[in-house]
Write a structure and sequence with these properties.
Elements (H helix, E strand, L loop, with lengths): L6 H23 L8 H16 L3 E6 L8 H21 L3 E5 L4 H15 L11 E3 L4 H15 L3 E7 L4 H10 L3 E6 L5 H7 L2 E4 L1 H11 L2 H29 L4 H6 L2
Parallel strand pairs: 1-2, 1-4, 2-3, 4-5, 5-6
Helix pairs in contact: 1-9, 2-3, 3-4, 3-8, 5-6
Length: 257
């Protein structure tokens, strides 16, 4: 028996699942056209700036494990780390990656190593590029702040899940004159990143950026499917607003069921 007041939610959930499955299936034959996010353009610019200055690029995939609800943000962050590693390998720029959780460390290490292999710079890869810090929040934060200060990096990229340390990271980047790029799905930390960083990937832009870089059909297809679901929801909202203006409450009555 369906609970009164939740039928509309169930219907929209099924519609969203349907559009995502449609997007994934369609992506198998042809990848959807996903626009390149401005934050990714900024990363290319930041690595170029670091190369010209002869300084390092710093990045971290956030303070989160891959076994929690924030795993999606962490995996997207690792895709971006891989993109940065390919650029630093291509331009012979120093790279420093700080990792917080033990489960993330081997993934980050493999991602960076693979990037250097792809660019044909295997001999340039150094195990010290990827550094494990701590899963304790403020130990991780202190380690990151120390790396930024000691290395005097020219570019900082903070992507993934963050908590109260976000504002400290952004301020540390500004203090050393670094270009700062951030991206997170944490709505609590987005205002700090948006205020203090040069570029910010807001919410699902981080997940989309990871899908764009990976070129994974399932992830790109799901992005396409979610966009279709949003268009349907927007259409229902627009129709409801117009009908309510005409004092016709059909859509409101349907959504209240």
């Amino acid at each position: 028996m369906l609970i009164e007041g939740r039928v509309a939610g169930l219907v929209f959930t099924l519609i969203t699942i349907g559009t995502m499955l449609y997007g994934i299936n369609k992506a198998k034959s042809k990848l959807p056209n996903v626009r390149r996010i401005a934050g990714l353009e900024a990363i290319d610019e930041a690595v170029g700036r670091a190369t010209e200055m002869g300084k390092a690029v710093f990045c971290t995939p956030g303070w989160a494990d891959i076994t929690t609800s924030t795993a999606g943000a962490t995996f997207a962050a690792l895709d971006i780390v891989g993109h940065i590693a390919r650029l630093t390998a291509r331009y012979d720029t120093r790279l420093v990656v700080a990792v917080s959780y033990p489960n993330v460390y081997p993934l980050a290490e493999q991602t960076v190593q693979q990037a250097y292999l792809v660019e044909g710079k295997r001999e340039k890869y150094d195990q010290d590029m990827v550094r494990f810090t701590s899963s304790e929040q403020y130990a991780y934060a202190a380690a990151v702040l120390g790396m930024i200060q000691r290395e005097k990096v020219a570019a900082c990229v903070f992507v993934g899940q963050f908590a109260s340390e976000a504002v400290d990271f952004a301020e540390a980047a500004v203090a050393v004159g670094s270009i700062a790029i951030a991206g997170t799905t944490s709505t609590y930390q987005l205002p700090f990143f948006a205020a203090a960083c040069d570029y910010t990937l807001i919410g699902e832009e981080l997940l989309t950026a990871g899908a764009y870089i990976s070129k994974d059909t399932a992830r790109l297809g799901s992005v396409h499917g979610q966009d279709l679901a949003k268009l349907i929801a927007f259409g229902v909202m627009l129709l409801g607003a117009i009908l309510c203006t005409l004092n016709i409450n059909v859509v409101v009555d349907l959504l209240s069921k």
